[in-house]
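Invent a record, attention on C-alpha coordinates:
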Amino acid sequence: MGTTSFLTRARGLLRIRNQLVRECLAELLATFMLIIITLSSSAQKITSSEVKGNLITSYLGGALAVMVGVYTAGGISGAHMNPAFSLAMCLIEQFPWWKFPIFVVVQMLGAFISSGAVYILYYDAIWYYSNGTLTVSGPRETASIFATYPADYVSITNGFVDQVIGTAVLLVGVLGIIDARNKAVPKGLEPVAVALLVLSIESSMGANCGCPLNPARDLGPRLFTYVAGWGPEVFRWVQRRG
Protein backbone atom coordinates (compact mmCIF):
# COMPACT_ATOMS: atom_id res chain seq x y z
CA MET A 1 0.00 0.00 0.00
CA GLY A 2 2.78 2.40 0.91
CA THR A 3 4.61 1.83 -2.37
CA THR A 4 1.41 2.18 -4.38
CA SER A 5 0.52 5.41 -2.59
CA PHE A 6 4.02 6.79 -3.17
CA LEU A 7 3.90 5.99 -6.89
CA THR A 8 0.46 7.57 -7.18
CA ARG A 9 1.69 10.77 -5.54
CA ALA A 10 4.82 10.77 -7.69
CA ARG A 11 2.77 10.43 -10.87
CA GLY A 12 0.56 13.28 -9.72
CA LEU A 13 3.55 15.52 -9.08
CA LEU A 14 5.29 14.65 -12.36
CA ARG A 15 2.20 14.89 -14.52
CA ILE A 16 2.39 17.75 -17.01
CA ARG A 17 -0.96 19.44 -17.45
CA ASN A 18 -0.01 22.16 -19.92
CA GLN A 19 -0.96 20.84 -23.35
CA LEU A 20 1.70 22.78 -25.26
CA VAL A 21 4.46 21.54 -22.95
CA ARG A 22 3.19 17.98 -23.35
CA GLU A 23 3.23 18.31 -27.13
CA CYS A 24 6.72 19.81 -27.16
CA LEU A 25 8.13 17.08 -24.93
CA ALA A 26 6.45 14.43 -27.08
CA GLU A 27 7.83 16.00 -30.25
CA LEU A 28 11.28 16.19 -28.68
CA LEU A 29 11.17 12.50 -27.72
CA ALA A 30 9.82 11.41 -31.12
CA THR A 31 12.54 13.33 -32.96
CA PHE A 32 15.15 11.94 -30.59
CA MET A 33 14.02 8.38 -31.35
CA LEU A 34 13.97 9.06 -35.09
CA ILE A 35 17.47 10.50 -35.21
CA ILE A 36 19.23 8.20 -32.74
CA ILE A 37 18.15 5.10 -34.68
CA THR A 38 18.82 6.69 -38.08
CA LEU A 39 22.30 7.92 -37.19
CA SER A 40 23.23 4.77 -35.29
CA SER A 41 22.46 2.63 -38.34
CA SER A 42 24.74 4.92 -40.34
CA ALA A 43 27.45 4.81 -37.69
CA GLN A 44 27.36 1.01 -37.59
CA LYS A 45 27.74 0.86 -41.37
CA ILE A 46 30.58 3.38 -41.64
CA THR A 47 32.70 2.56 -38.59
CA SER A 48 32.64 -1.16 -39.39
CA SER A 49 33.67 -0.48 -43.02
CA GLU A 50 30.32 -2.02 -44.02
CA VAL A 51 31.09 -5.32 -42.29
CA LYS A 52 28.32 -4.96 -39.69
CA GLY A 53 26.00 -2.87 -41.83
CA ASN A 54 25.44 -1.72 -45.39
CA LEU A 55 23.27 0.59 -47.46
CA ILE A 56 20.25 -1.67 -47.04
CA THR A 57 20.49 -1.82 -43.24
CA SER A 58 21.02 1.94 -43.16
CA TYR A 59 17.88 2.52 -45.22
CA LEU A 60 15.90 0.06 -43.10
CA GLY A 61 17.13 1.74 -39.92
CA GLY A 62 16.02 5.15 -41.16
CA ALA A 63 12.59 3.91 -42.26
CA LEU A 64 11.91 1.93 -39.10
CA ALA A 65 13.08 4.92 -37.05
CA VAL A 66 10.23 6.93 -38.56
CA MET A 67 7.80 4.22 -37.48
CA VAL A 68 9.18 4.22 -33.93
CA GLY A 69 8.98 8.01 -33.75
CA VAL A 70 5.34 8.07 -34.87
CA TYR A 71 4.36 5.34 -32.43
CA THR A 72 6.20 7.22 -29.67
CA ALA A 73 4.33 10.51 -29.91
CA GLY A 74 1.78 10.35 -32.72
CA GLY A 75 -1.17 10.55 -30.35
CA ILE A 76 0.18 13.56 -28.47
CA SER A 77 2.02 15.91 -30.82
CA GLY A 78 1.29 14.24 -34.13
CA ALA A 79 4.97 13.22 -34.27
CA HIS A 80 5.83 15.67 -37.05
CA MET A 81 9.61 15.24 -36.49
CA ASN A 82 10.15 17.30 -39.62
CA PRO A 83 9.81 21.09 -40.17
CA ALA A 84 8.72 20.43 -43.75
CA PHE A 85 5.81 18.32 -42.53
CA SER A 86 4.88 20.91 -39.88
CA LEU A 87 4.86 23.57 -42.61
CA ALA A 88 2.67 21.40 -44.85
CA MET A 89 0.20 20.90 -42.00
CA CYS A 90 0.07 24.67 -41.49
CA LEU A 91 -0.58 25.27 -45.18
CA ILE A 92 -3.56 22.90 -45.20
CA GLU A 93 -4.81 24.46 -41.95
CA GLN A 94 -4.36 21.30 -39.88
CA PHE A 95 -1.80 22.90 -37.57
CA PRO A 96 -1.75 26.45 -36.11
CA TRP A 97 0.90 28.77 -37.50
CA TRP A 98 1.86 30.05 -34.06
CA LYS A 99 3.05 26.56 -33.09
CA PHE A 100 5.19 26.17 -36.20
CA PRO A 101 8.35 27.98 -34.97
CA ILE A 102 8.05 26.26 -31.58
CA PHE A 103 7.92 22.81 -33.17
CA VAL A 104 10.84 23.62 -35.49
CA VAL A 105 13.02 24.60 -32.53
CA VAL A 106 11.98 21.47 -30.62
CA GLN A 107 12.68 19.24 -33.63
CA MET A 108 16.13 20.81 -34.14
CA LEU A 109 16.88 20.41 -30.44
CA GLY A 110 15.81 16.77 -30.46
CA ALA A 111 18.03 16.07 -33.47
CA PHE A 112 20.98 17.86 -31.86
CA ILE A 113 20.64 15.98 -28.56
CA SER A 114 20.28 12.60 -30.25
CA SER A 115 23.39 13.33 -32.34
CA GLY A 116 25.28 13.76 -29.08
CA ALA A 117 23.90 10.45 -27.86
CA VAL A 118 25.08 8.68 -31.02
CA TYR A 119 28.51 10.29 -30.67
CA ILE A 120 28.77 8.96 -27.12
CA LEU A 121 27.47 5.53 -28.17
CA TYR A 122 29.97 5.22 -31.01
CA TYR A 123 32.74 7.35 -29.54
CA ASP A 124 35.43 4.67 -29.53
CA ALA A 125 34.40 3.34 -32.94
CA ILE A 126 34.44 6.82 -34.50
CA TRP A 127 37.90 7.67 -33.20
CA TYR A 128 39.31 4.23 -34.06
CA TYR A 129 37.90 4.30 -37.59
CA SER A 130 38.99 7.89 -38.26
CA ASN A 131 42.54 7.32 -36.96
CA GLY A 132 42.05 10.15 -34.49
CA THR A 133 41.08 12.83 -37.03
CA LEU A 134 37.52 14.04 -37.54
CA THR A 135 37.14 14.82 -41.24
CA VAL A 136 34.33 15.61 -43.66
CA SER A 137 35.96 14.14 -46.77
CA GLY A 138 38.47 11.43 -47.57
CA PRO A 139 38.50 7.64 -47.15
CA ARG A 140 38.17 7.85 -43.35
CA GLU A 141 35.59 10.60 -43.07
CA THR A 142 32.99 10.28 -40.32
CA ALA A 143 30.87 13.40 -40.81
CA SER A 144 28.39 11.49 -42.98
CA ILE A 145 27.43 9.44 -39.94
CA PHE A 146 25.53 12.50 -38.80
CA ALA A 147 24.60 14.60 -41.84
CA THR A 148 24.12 13.85 -45.52
CA TYR A 149 26.59 14.93 -48.18
CA PRO A 150 26.14 14.97 -51.96
CA ALA A 151 27.79 12.59 -54.40
CA ASP A 152 30.81 14.00 -56.23
CA TYR A 153 28.87 14.65 -59.43
CA VAL A 154 25.93 16.52 -57.89
CA SER A 155 25.72 20.28 -58.42
CA ILE A 156 24.07 22.67 -55.98
CA THR A 157 21.14 23.10 -58.37
CA ASN A 158 20.67 19.36 -58.83
CA GLY A 159 20.98 18.85 -55.07
CA PHE A 160 18.27 21.43 -54.43
CA VAL A 161 15.93 19.89 -57.00
CA ASP A 162 16.65 16.43 -55.57
CA GLN A 163 15.53 17.48 -52.11
CA VAL A 164 12.47 19.38 -53.34
CA ILE A 165 11.22 16.38 -55.29
CA GLY A 166 12.04 13.84 -52.57
CA THR A 167 10.42 15.91 -49.83
CA ALA A 168 7.35 16.55 -52.01
CA VAL A 169 6.90 12.82 -52.59
CA LEU A 170 7.23 12.23 -48.85
CA LEU A 171 4.66 14.88 -47.95
CA VAL A 172 2.13 13.81 -50.59
CA GLY A 173 2.49 10.20 -49.49
CA VAL A 174 2.09 10.96 -45.78
CA LEU A 175 -0.90 13.24 -46.35
CA GLY A 176 -2.50 10.52 -48.44
CA ILE A 177 -1.92 7.94 -45.71
CA ILE A 178 -3.42 10.05 -42.93
CA ASP A 179 -6.37 11.37 -44.99
CA ALA A 180 -9.48 9.71 -43.52
CA ARG A 181 -11.40 10.42 -46.75
CA ASN A 182 -8.87 8.45 -48.77
CA LYS A 183 -8.43 4.67 -48.96
CA ALA A 184 -7.98 4.08 -45.25
CA VAL A 185 -4.94 2.39 -43.75
CA PRO A 186 -5.99 -0.04 -40.96
CA LYS A 187 -6.10 1.86 -37.69
CA GLY A 188 -2.81 1.66 -35.82
CA LEU A 189 -0.82 0.71 -38.92
CA GLU A 190 -0.34 4.25 -40.24
CA PRO A 191 3.24 4.42 -38.88
CA VAL A 192 4.09 1.20 -40.70
CA ALA A 193 2.74 2.62 -43.95
CA VAL A 194 4.78 5.80 -43.47
CA ALA A 195 7.90 3.72 -42.79
CA LEU A 196 7.37 1.80 -46.02
CA LEU A 197 6.91 5.10 -47.86
CA VAL A 198 10.22 6.39 -46.47
CA LEU A 199 11.95 3.14 -47.40
CA SER A 200 10.64 3.37 -50.96
CA ILE A 201 11.93 6.95 -51.30
CA GLU A 202 15.33 6.07 -49.83
CA SER A 203 15.63 3.09 -52.16
CA SER A 204 14.81 5.14 -55.25
CA MET A 205 16.06 8.68 -54.53
CA GLY A 206 18.98 8.28 -52.15
CA ALA A 207 21.90 8.24 -54.61
CA ASN A 208 22.34 11.98 -55.12
CA CYS A 209 22.29 13.46 -51.63
CA GLY A 210 21.58 10.65 -49.19
CA CYS A 211 17.88 11.41 -48.96
CA PRO A 212 17.57 13.48 -45.74
CA LEU A 213 14.05 14.78 -46.63
CA ASN A 214 14.00 16.56 -43.28
CA PRO A 215 15.70 19.87 -42.34
CA ALA A 216 15.86 18.85 -38.68
CA ARG A 217 17.39 15.47 -39.52
CA ASP A 218 20.17 17.16 -41.47
CA LEU A 219 20.74 20.55 -39.83
CA GLY A 220 20.52 19.45 -36.18
CA PRO A 221 23.22 16.76 -36.54
CA ARG A 222 25.27 19.03 -38.80
CA LEU A 223 25.31 21.70 -36.09
CA PHE A 224 26.42 19.03 -33.64
CA THR A 225 29.36 17.99 -35.82
CA TYR A 226 30.34 21.65 -36.16
CA VAL A 227 30.67 22.12 -32.40
CA ALA A 228 31.96 18.58 -31.70
CA GLY A 229 35.16 18.93 -33.69
CA TRP A 230 34.49 18.50 -37.39
CA GLY A 231 34.56 22.27 -37.85
CA PRO A 232 33.03 24.64 -40.45
CA GLU A 233 33.78 22.23 -43.29
CA VAL A 234 30.49 20.50 -42.47
CA PHE A 235 28.62 23.46 -44.00
CA ARG A 236 30.52 23.47 -47.28
CA TRP A 237 29.57 21.65 -50.47
CA VAL A 238 32.20 18.94 -50.31
CA GLN A 239 32.50 15.48 -51.70
CA ARG A 240 31.80 12.83 -49.10
CA ARG A 241 34.73 10.57 -49.85
CA GLY A 242 37.83 10.98 -51.97
In short: The mean pLDDT is 91. The chain has one domain: 18-235. DSSP finds nine helices and no strands in the chain. The domain at 18-235 is CATH 1.20.1080.10 (Glycerol uptake facilitator protein).
